[in-house]
Design brief:
This protein is mainly α and 799 residues long. Among the domains are: 4-82 and 609-788, Rossmann fold (3-Layer(aba) Sandwich); 449-580, no CATH class. It has 27 helices and nine strands. The chain has helices spanning 4-8, 31-35, 95-105, 114-154, 158-162, 179-186, 188-209, 241-273, 279-305, 319-340, 355-383, 395-422, 440-447, 449-476, 489-503, 508-533, 537-540, 546-579, 581-594, 610-628, 639-649, 653-656, 668-675, 677-680, 682-691, 712-715, 752-767; strands at 18-23, 41-45, 50-53, 72-77, 631-637, 659-664, 695-700, 720-724, 787-788. Strands 8-7-6-5-1-4-3-2-9 form a nine-stranded mixed sheet, with helices on both faces. The protein is globular. The model is unreliable at 1-8, 216-221 and 771-799 (pLDDT under 50).
């Protein structure tokens, strides 16, 4: 906790100092790169996220001869929150959970009123239920591999088990060879996976997200739309401990119950079908079913009952749910393993476990949830239409469908690859194969993958054709933007190509919509084909027209190989990221975008770095302004501009009046405003501009990520300056003897507009009335400690 004594120290005599707080974007940048100094000094923070300065500026506030005419530069480096040690590579396995969590935040804007509040609650409930189904799907896939393919099919087949020594102890004829005991041994794998997910969620919360916001109500009267409080300005928005703990307990219990159902179902089915089963086993089977149904209903009730609390930091925990849910599910799993392992001498394993029904119900439930989510999102957008919202308010349902598709591809791909490995040279599920193979539905899912890719070629080709036409049109008049320069067709084409490629970002929503719509349609066809035929596509098409049979066989084989290659590439990428820091930074870029939002729907998603970074920035700005009474410009590039805006929303009004914001390459409106309109829509950004008068935004037409904020028309003075000239020089000249690079998304500091706008913001803050400095002395602030450090990271791509 910060030292209140440091906040009470009076500012040194003389004019108040000026501070420029630099926040980097995706991909990260070392302190040395941000400060342009090889030996930065850590002022405050730890090895994960910290504030750095140049050595000569380390104690600038305390020296009477502090620098004049320029602000003190500080760099807040947060890249190690997403691309630190090798364990971050394991987060790739959590990709479907992260996408499902994004669907929660991509809901349309909601107008004030009870009806809209009910719709928002319904939307959140549907996303939480869909996220729960993804946990069940992942654990069910692990059960399919460990219980069905390994323990039931391969270990029950003498030829398969004999060639694989680890399964030799489970072959028929041994004590462990009874099917129920083999299932009990196989259940340890998905149970351990569930425990690993629980451990990772607990550990990452403690390491990254357990940062309390500044004491007291941080933002009374934070800017909103229509006078209401902005969501990102609420005191508890960046502290979701209670909901994460509650969902973690529920999802852990759901995973353990899924394992218990997978073990109990074949044992109960055998006891009811076999003659001579003892009444005790019959009664135990009924009791197990009743307990499993009760546990499932309890988990569903806990997930549906409560969402996030954002009005205030919610430090309370539901101790009963946190203890009873996982503990009760673990005890029930142990009882089920004992029940399944009871001696049944006449029981033999044949065929496959009833996975088709389970995966079919999951897939059908996910589709129904996605359709209900689309209905609620459409109602919200219709009542409060937000200009520019992606897919006309249907971005959240589209993202949810993508999360389900990723989960299905990952689970099906692993099952297919393991089945092919176990069956040797045969094709599981076909006549003459040694093993029945995975559920038929997974083969149908693989078969629809080639048609999906072919269908997506059409919108991709359309977007590329539009980009080529735009490039030709822009190149024709580009030389006129550089008066006095001789026209160079090749140079014009390169610049126009960069602008056309950057404009493709604006087509992304419709491409995502096409992917989601085609995926939902083909998934419905795969589910219908699996349930109607009961056979893999190649067998279902046997006897049909030869072209149809060949197409079905080709689609199934090609889809199976594509899924296998995808899983292999996924594993190889994760392994490379585990060993190579440069590759890990590439993975970190994905997390920079996807894990900005708190874990509101899925507790096993990768941790939210903003729940550490936003409080860090808020603490720094409140503490520094309280201690010095000086002027501060927070300067954010790319994703750093989103962190800067979120931190400014959290500032008390008296502190916000001393802070200016300079954003550049910012996705605030272009990406976040379109995909998350309830939080960054035009109304929210316009309200932030009204409350934060000193805000300027720089952008380029060649930038594929950043864009204009466009709040000036409704507020007064425009925020935006741009598009900036890129490249700065068209051709060679005495002033620019070498070709000027096309900068695109990077190196905005190289443009003279950057320094001019920063200095103008500081001058404007200096001219504005600041009130009595001592009014904010009660705001706690961190005491500056000075420690020399090595450069935190090797130079990375600044973004």
């Amino acid at each position: 906790m910060p030292d209140p004594v440091a906040a009470a120290e009076p500012p040194p005599p003389g004019p108040p100092p000026a501070l420029e707080l630099l926040v980097h974007g995706v991909g990260g940048a070392s302190p040395a790169e941000l400060l342009r100094d090889p030996y930065p000094v850590r002022i405050t923070g730890d090895s994960t996220a910290a504030v750095f300065r140049r050595p000569e500026d380390a104690d600038a506030e305390d020296r009477p001869g502090r620098p004049r005419g320029r602000p003190v530069a500080e760099a807040y480096c947060w890249s190690r929150l997403t691309s630190g040690n090798g364990a971050r590579a394991l987060w790739l396995l959590l990709l479907p959970f992260m996408v499902a969590n994004l669907a929660h935040w991509a809901r349309p804007a909601a107008a004030p009123g009870k009806a809209a509040a009910r719709a928002v609650r319904t939307y959140g409930l549907l996303v939480r239920v869909l996220a729960l189904s993804l946990t069940v799907l992942l654990v069910a896939a692990a059960c399919e591999v460990a219980l069905d393919l390994l323990a039931w099919q391969c270990a029950g087949n003498t030829a398969c088990a004999g060639t694989r020594s680890p399964l030799g102890a489970l072959r028929p004829g041994t004590w462990w060879g009874q099917p129920g005991r083999r299932l009990a041994v196989g259940a340890l794998v998905p149970a351990a996976l569930t425990g690993l997910l629980w451990y990772l969620s607990t550990r990452t919360w403690s390491a990254y997200e357990s940062q309390p916001p500044p004491a007291g109500p941080a933002t009374p009267g934070a800017p909103g739309t229509g006078g209401e409080e902005a969501p990102l300005g609420q005191a508890g928005f960046w502290y979701g401990r209670r909901i994460v703990a509650r969902l973690r307990a529920a999802h852990t219990a759901a995973g353990l119950l899924t394992v218990a159902v997978a073990v109990a179902a074949p044992a109960v089915r055998h006891d009811r079908a076999a003659t001579g089963t003892s009444p005790a086993l019959q009664a135990a089977g009924w009791a197990v079913e009743a307990l499993l149904a009760t546990g499932a209903a309890t988990v569903l009730w806990v997930v549906c009952r409560r969402g996030r609390t954002e009005v205030r930091p919610d430090h309370r925990l539901d101790r009963a749910a946190l203890t009873l849910l996982p503990g009760g599910a673990l005890a029930l799993l142990a009882a089920v393993l004992l029940y399944a392992g009871w001696s049944r001498p006449g029981w033999v394993s044949a065929g496959r476990l009833p996975g088709d029904f389970a995966f079919g119900v999951l897939m059908l439930g996910q589709g129904c949830c996605a359709l209900a989510l689309a209905f609620v999102a459409h109602r919200l957008h219709r009542d409060t239409p937000e200009p520019g919202a992606a897919l006309r308010g249907l971005a959240g349902p589209a993202v949810a469908v993508l999360g389900c598709a990723l989960g299905g591809v990952m689970s099906g791909g692993v099952a297919q690859r393991v089945a092919d490995w176990l069956d040797g040279g045969g094709t599981p599920g076909t006549p003459g194969a040694a093993l029945p193979g995975p559920p038929v539905l997974l083969s149908w899912q693989a078969a629809v993958l080639p048609p999906l890719l072919i269908a997506l070629l059409l919108p991709a080709a359309w977007a590329l054709a539009r980009a080529a036409l735009a490039r030709r049109r822009m190149a024709a008049g580009l030389a006129a933007e550089y008066p006095g320069e001789p026209a160079d067709p090749d140079r014009s084409r390169r610049i126009a190509g960069a602008r056309a490629a950057a404009a493709l970002t604006d087509s992304a929503p419709w491409f995502v919509g096409a992917v989601s719509g085609i995926t939902l349609l083909l998934g419905t066809g795969a589910l219908a084909g699996a349930w109607i035929s009961g056979r893999v596509p190649a067998e279902a098409a046997r006897g049909a027209h030869p072209l149809l049979a060949a197409a079905a066989r080709g689609a199934q084989d090609t889809g199976s190989w594509l899924i296998g290659l995808g899983v292999a590439a996924f594993v190889a990428w994760g392994r490379r990221a585990y060993r190579d820091p440069a590759a890990r930074r590439t993975v970190g870029i994905l997390w920079d975008v996807g894990t900005f939002w708190p874990r509101a729907a899925h507790p096993f998603a990768p941790p939210c770095y903003a729940e550490r970074a936003v409080p860090d920035l808020t603490w720094r700005m409140t503490g520094w302004t309280a201690r010095t009474g000086g002027r501060l410009v927070i300067s954010g590039h790319s994703q750093g501009s989103v962190l800067a805006a979120a931190a400014v929303w959290q500032l008390p009004p008296e502190v916000r009046g001393r802070v200016g914001m300079l954003t550049y390459g910012s996705p605030l409106a272009r990406l976040y405003g379109r995909w998350f309109p309830d939080f960054f829509g035009p109304g929210r950004l316009a309200a932030l501009h009204r409350d934060l008068d000193c805000w300027r935004n720089l952008w380029r037409a060649t930038d594929p990520i950043g864009g204009p904020v466009e709040t000036g028309a409704a507020v007064g003075e425009p925020v935006d300056r741009g598009p900036l000239r890129d490249p700065l020089a068209y051709g060679r000249s005495p002033r620019h003897p070498l070709p000027a690079p096309i900068l695109g998304h990077g190196d905005y500091q190289a443009d003279p507009a950057f320094t001019a706008e920063r200095d103008a913001l500081l001058a404007r803050l200096d001219a504005a009335p600041r009130g009595d400095v001592h009014d904010t002395r009660e705001v706690p602030g961190p005491r500056i400690s000075r420690a020399r450090t090595e450069p935190a990271d090797p130079p990375g791509r600044a973004g």
